[in-house]
Amino acid sequence: MITDAIDNSFKLAKQNKWDRTFWAVDIHETMLVPDYKRGGNFIEWYPYAKEALQKMSKRKDIDLILFTCSWPEEIEKYKEKFEEEGIYFKYENENPDVPNAAYGNYDKKFYFNVLFEDKAGFHPREWEDVIPKLDEYPDGYGLMDI
Fold first, then answer.
1. How far apart are CA 75 and CA 90, in angstroms?
2. pLDDT tens profile 51-96
3. CB within 8 A of 122, min separation 6: which ones?
4. Quick check: 16 and 52 in contact, CB under 8 A?
5. Backbone dihedral region for residue 60 (phi beyond 0: left; psi -120 to 50: alpha; all else: beta)
6. Among 59, 118, 125, 142, who pairs with 29 as Cys (CB 3.0-4.6 Å)?
7. What is the DSSP string of 60-98?
8. What confidence tier does 100 reach under pLDDT thresholds 50, 70, 90?
9. Superfamily of the domain at 2-143
10. In the chain, which ranges are continuous DSSP H helix?
11. Exposure pattern of 100-139 as b/e (b: 16+ CB <10 Å)?
12. Residue 142 vs residues 14, 15, 31, 77, 111: alpha-carbon distances, Å
């Protein structure tokens, strides 16, 4: 379940005193109902997806990464719409903030802590659980002495 990944992400942040974590989010069949047509058409949000992503976007300890196979011109349309809704993605299909290191080579697979992706088992009905899970961890949790 996605809530387990969220718990793990925040626990690792606290253990390692990270100031932020990276959450990758797919578009189709994850946050938006797909129309399966090229063009970046914005159809409809899954319940609670927009609200959860807005909440994530307000946090300083989460960097959102758009994880999509959409065409570049579609990505730009989506990002404009997301920003109108108060949802901000730092990167698209990359994370240059985490370079290669002794524990990992990120040349072809970028680093993330949480993945919202239907092909990886995330189901849109889980968005409802994300909002209260975020509320369990104050912003900046990784650097807090609790």
1. 13
2. 999 999 999 999 999 999 999 999 999 999 999 999 999 999 999 9
3. 2, 26, 30, 115, 116
4. no
5. alpha
6. 118
7. TTEEEEE-----HHHHHHHHHHHHHTT---SEES--TTS
8. confident
9. HAD superfamily/HAD-like (3.40.50.1000)
10. 2-16, 49-58, 72-84, 127-135
11. eeeeeeeeeebbbbbbbbeeeebebebbeebeebbeebee
12. 4, 7, 26, 33, 18
Say how far apart CA 30 and CA 24 lie, in whole Å.
11
Count Cα neighbours of 31 within 13 Å in the Cβ-side half-sphere.
21
What is the average per-residue pLDDT within 9-21? 94
pLDDT, tens digit (0-9, with 9 covering 90-100), for 17-59: 999 999 999 999 999 998 777 666 677 999 999 999 999 999 9
